Structure formats: C-alpha cells, structure tokens
Sequence to fold (493 residues):
Amino acid sequence: MSVPAPVPHLKRSLRRFDIMAMGVAAVISFDVIGQIAAGGGQAVTWIAVLAVTFLLPYALVFAETGAAFPQEGGPYVWVEVAFGRPAAVLTTMFYWVTNPVWLGGSLVFVAAAAWDGFVLRLGSGTVADYAFKLAFIWAAILTAVVSLRRGKWITTAGAGAKVLALSFFTGTAVAYGIQHGFRGLQGAGFSPTGVGFLALVPVLLFAFVGFEAPNAAGDEMLAPQRDVPVAIGVSGTIATCCYLLPVLAILSAAPPGRVTGVGGFMDAARLVFGIYGDGREPVLTFVAVLFVVALLTQGSAWMIVADRMQAMAAADGGFFSRGLGAFHPRLGTPVRMNLLSGVTATVFMAAAMNLAKGDASAVFGVVLTVAITTLLLSYLAVVPSLLALRLRHREVPRPYQVPFGTRGFTVATLLVYCWIVLGSWVALFPGTLERLFGLPYDFRAVWGVSRLSFEAFTLGTVALLLAVAAAGYLTQRRRTRPRNEERATGPAR
Fold:
C-alpha cells in the first residue's frame, strides 16, 4: 500500500477533546437549522429516522477507517489508495470547493441577516452589506491560516458558542412554552409525507456529514488510533441533540408558516425571548453576536480541514502546481490554499449577491443547495473507498472495528451510500422524483427562482468544477511526465 509522502513542518497538537470540538464546530450548521425547521413537524420525524439509519452507520464506518488510516489528508488518501489519484483528485475538488461556496454564499448571508436584524443595520446590497460579508469571509480564512496549535482554540470556542447559544435558546423556548402554551406543536404535523421527505433529505444529510473532517489533519493528532472513534461518537451524539432539540423548540414557539431558512433561528429567538421583558433586546443582541461568531468559526473549521485535503492533492501532483500544496514552515498551514479559498468564497459571494437581485431568502436557498450538491457528490467516491480499503487491506491494524466485522461494515457502508445517492439526486434535480411519483411541486414557489436559473447555477457550478479538476490534474501530469521520462531513460548524451 502506497500513501502520499508525509508533510514536513507539522506538529502533533490535536488531543481527543480538540478533535471532538473540531467535529462539533464543523458539523453543527446554524444556517440549516432554520431550513430544517421550515419543514414543519415531520422534520423532527426525519431527523430521528436519519439519526438511526444514516448517522449511526456513517459514524461506525468512518470511525473505523479514520483510526486505521490516520494520514494527513484524510479522505483524499483513502480514495487515492482505494481507486487511484484521478478519482481522489476529483473527489477532493468537490469536497474542498463546497466550503468556500458555502462560506461565501450561505454562512455569510445568514450572518449578515442576523447582524442586520439584531446588532447593526446593514441594508441589502449596500456598501455596509458588502463590507460585512468581505470581513466575515476573510476573518474565517485568516483563522485557518494561523497554526493549528493556536487555531484549534478558535474552533473550540466556536463549538462552545454553538452549544451555549442552542442550549440557551432551547431552555428559553421551554420556559416560553410553559408560560404561553406549546401552541406551535399542535399544528406542526409530525406525520411523514413524501413531499416533506424529498425536501428534507438533502438538507439533513448535509447537516449530518463531516465527522471525518478532522482526519484531514491526521498527522497533527497525538493519538488518532485511540481518539478518532471516541471523538466521532461523542460529536455525533452532540450534533443530533443540537439539531433535534432546537428544531422542536422553534416549532413549539413559532406559528406554522412563519419559519424561514435564512432567519428561522433568530426569528424564533425574537419571539421566545419576549419572556425577558425589557431585557429582550440586549439578550437578542448578545445571542446574535454569539450566533455570528459561531458561524464564523464554523467556516474556519471547514477551511482548516478542507484546505489541507486540497493541499495534499496539489502536493501529490493532482492540482495545477505542487506549490499550492506547500505548508508554511513556521505555521504548518497550507497558506496558499487558504488564500485561494478566500478568493473563491469572495467571487461566489459576489455572484450570489446578483443571483436574485438582493432576495436573501432565494439566494440562501439556491446557494445552500449548491453546497449540499458538491459535498454529497464527493461522498459518492469517499464512501465506497471505505469498503474497498476494508476488503483489500486487511493487513492494516484496526484499533476500532464495526460490530460483526466485514459483514457489518459492508451493510453499514451500503446503507450510507444509498442515502448519499438519493440526496445527491434530489439536490441536483429537485422536483424530478416528485413528478415521477405524482407529488405536487411548484418550483418557483419553493426556490424563488425559475428552474432555468436554478439549474444554470447548480449544473453550471458542477460542470465548472469538473473542468477545473480535469485541467488541474492534466496540467500537473504534463509537467511531471518529462521528468519521469528523463529518470527512466537517463540524461541525453
């Protein structure tokens, strides 16, 4: 078995708690809580279903693989060893680009909406609006540039801010319900439906994936074989609670139809914080600032791991120039890849601002779907690579193993893969399965844009990424071929 060469300048600094905090910071997505709650009571039902049928087997197979293959680059290394460099390069491209797209087109919009509504007026499309979004993007990038020994405390603070804000909100919502009655739950409708299922599946999968992300910094962990399985188990449990309880709280307080994707959490907070009387506005402002900080550190946590994966692909000869894979000798971070992510996020933010002429809700929904699509598409290769590694490299020690051995691992992997395939299709071609099964679906009412605009943005993004990944791989291959031929034939006489 051949794996990419180890990266110099890296220092082992990630303990079990750090890995767990990084997983919580990356996976718990404030921006999708409102989107999930907009699905009504059946969102709670589907969260419970996916927690058992998707998250549990997902955590099991990634915990085993992450402990057995703890090299820097994580999923890039797994796919390369299983299926070769071209597949790994393409997979990593989709995995990596999800994060600047998400940062520049989803997280920044939710953060700006919260800041505009509860802290300081920004307006829409104004100089202040652009300035805030640029500052947000580049603050997230800069926190990924600093050494991981220091940067891990930023992601840990973000994880703490998320759990604190969600716990405070949930507790307040319970108090509000006791005082005013849990009227929202009466009309929430917990019975699952086909329309609700197809609408929620991509968002819920996006919310639950990513616990393997800290493995991208595998060579910076102190004891990955021992710590990764425990960290994935703990962070998965925390994430399930941090989705299920706040969604229930939002539904209990907010009247049906009032929950929106872009403003769901803070709009519900405005309502339930009414129990604090004259203190509501200061508390709302504090929670809004905490909310924005949590979003910022969420973006930086993903930049820390995704940029390392893409840097490993570049250093391994799979993305334009090996220089993009260089790690800073003092900081131990892929600074050039971090900066490339910042530029990509900025470009995508500018494109998203013009997508729906300032309609933040429409922009948010479409761009979030782009991020969901690109991330889920990457798992179409990552998940099978886990099974391939299990079957082809039995000699590799596995400190943790999925129950029932290879059979249990195979069943869990196939179950996860079926969910990923379904989510990828629904995200990329919304409304097609509804039409196939005769379910009602009004595209413009759901997305706020025409199908042509939607598909141009989503399919156009996917096509562009395929072209960039192919160009990056072929460019580097042409550069290295003359050197390889010279080594094979010797110097010319």
Q: What stands out?
A: The CA atoms of residues 126 and 401 lie 54 Å apart. The chain has 18 helices and no strands.
